[in-house]
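Much of what follows relies on a compact textual record of a protein's fold. Here is one such record, which you should read through line by line:
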Amino acid sequence: MADIRPFRALRYDTTKAGGIEELTCPPYDIISEAQRQEYLARNPHNVIRLELPKGEDPYGEAAQTLSSWLEERILKTDMDPGLYIYEQEFLSKVDKGERKVLRGLICRVRLEEFATGVVLPHEETLSKAKEDRFRLMEAAHCNFSQIYSLYQDEGHVTRKRLDNLAAGTVPRYDFSDGLVTHRLWVVNDPAAIAAIQEDFAGRKLYIADGHHRYETALNYRRHLEEQGQYCPGADFAMMMLVDMTDEGLIVFPTHRLVRGLENFESASLLAACGELFDISPIENLESAQLGLDEAYAQAKHAFAYFDGSQWSLLTLKDLSVMNALLPDKSAASRGLDVSILHTLVLERILKIDKENMARQLNLTYTRSGEEAVESVEKGESQCCFLLNPTRVEEIRDVAACGEKMPQKSTYFYPKLITGLVMNHLERS
């Protein structure tokens, strides 16, 4: 099944490049241009120059920067192949909540077509993002960030191995970005590596975050084959592997913003929703969150709706309506809150079709409830729908059925940091 391999990672020489806390950044797709400039001002060697290049020839710039950093030994290849234990310590809610620790394993994973059932996606992807990542990989031949994947391990065998390997040892990196403390250990012991490889020999991997990068890796490998080029590293992608039941695993919801619809009327929308949903008036964002929390605890399907003047809680009356509308989908897919919202409200009532959603013409997304409300109050959006988070077991079940959720169905928190380790495809 899953074939994982140690590798000689590219890592910063902090004696030349600066402190690791100045050199790393969040994933490229959540960084604004202003934030990008802040990272570069902090340290010109920040990995953002490789992961999110700008300019007339951004991909060529990234490749040239990588080449010069290798030549100057700003980046160095580890002497021995290894696996990398990565830990995040954080609060379960931004700036508050319960303290959590998530620990996983960064390694190379052999690429598998989805049809083999070894690596399973759960979410639809956007073509524009894949084109961007492909052009960067084609130019630089490197994974600058890791794909985030989950695995099932009822006995937590691998987690115990990682805990034992990290126990009593000083991590190579240990720093905070203000919200999350990041730690990294390097595992070079051949016996330990072999034991972990054996653990994964019978497992499937479920992509949590990084669908675009995984599909890009598959496309890049096909491209090389078509061009008759040989690059053994292109058979693998760098991944962070986490136990699906790890207590530190947190999924936030991604809310929906509706904008630019002609002849939009909130009263008509609510009247149409009344056929399938119980509609209860609520007061504000705080009461909306309380209502969503209660629905989540009771396994009910509910959304908070705001149109700029009033709030409503929409609770589905009968899930069986989804059977007729999505007869070809599994029960796992039909029972997703995001599927219910998209199918019954966004598509059926508001007539926002899947292509429109993919192109984000009349539908955009945010993780912040406050940002969603502000967008509606400013008139940037006509209304918003706040959702509950997707459960990890729902992600697993949908992926296991060979199906995908709508894009932006999940938001794993915290995001994995970029720049601790990198995977050069042309190096072993």
